[in-house]
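Figure 2 data, in text form.
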Amino acid sequence: MTKLIKVKDHPHLYRDGDTGAIINYDTLGYNQRIKRIESQKSQKEELDDMKRDIEEIKSLLKDFLNK
């Protein structure tokens, strides 16, 4: 079993005794970050939808004006 060693001055960080890897056990911070990423992704999708809608409106206006 791997021994975890607490990292000085970092309450959520531990070092894996076997591999030396740093492990972050800050689940609250992790969940907040995931929510921010999802929110940014949602906002980008909304912007992309709006851009497509604007392009469609422009195309319809051009067709209308050319008739």
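Caption note: The mean pLDDT is 94.
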